[in-house]
C-alpha cells in the first residue's frame, strides 16, 4: 500500500496464521517514499489493542530504500488471533506498507 493523506483514512491489515504459540518479535519493513509522513501508525490487536507509532527512517545515501523497525515483542496464540493494521489516519504525508515479519523468540 502507498497512500497519500486524505479525508478518508486508508488501511491495510496483516493477519498471519501462527502455527506455533509463543513469544514473537514483530518487525515492519518501512520503504522510503517521497513526501513520507513523519511517522507511521500501526495498530496491533492480540486480545488487546496497542497503538505503535514509528518515526519514518531518514534517507541515507548508498543505503537500501527502506528499513526494518521493531514493533515490539508479543505472546501469540496458535491460529489467526493477531492482526497488524497500518493506517493513514492523522498522517501528515504519504504512508507506505510493505511487510510484517514475525520472528519466534527463543
3D architecture notes:
The protein has one domain (about 1-105): Jelly Rolls (Sandwich). The chain is built from no helices and nine strands. It has strands spanning about 1-5, 10-15, 20-30, 40-45, 50-55, 65-75, 85, 95, 100-105. The strands form three sheets. A four-stranded antiparallel beta sheet has the order 2-7-4-5, with no helix packed on it. Strands 6-3-9 form a three-stranded antiparallel beta sheet, with no helix packed on it. It is globular, with a radius of gyration of 14 Å.
Give a quick summary of the entry.
This protein has 106 residues and is an all-beta fold. The chain has strands spanning 2-3, 11-14, 22-31, 39-45, 49-55, 66-76, 83-87, 95-96, 99-104.
- Radius of gyration, in angstroms, nearest whole number: 14 Å
- Global structural class: mainly beta
The average pLDDT value, as a whole number, equals 88
CATH superfamily: Galactose-binding domain-like
Shape: globular
Question: Segments where pLDDT lies below 50 for 5+ residues?
Answer: none
Number of helices: 0
Q: What strand order characterises the main sheet? A: 2-7-4-5
According to CATH, the fold-level topology is Jelly Rolls
- Compressed to H and E, one letter per element, the order equals EEEEEEEEE
CATH class: Mainly Beta
Q: What can be said about the biggest beta sheet?
A: 4 strands, antiparallel
Count of β-strands: 9
Beta-strand share of residues: over 45%
CATH architecture: Sandwich
Q: What's the helical proportion of residues?
A: under 10%
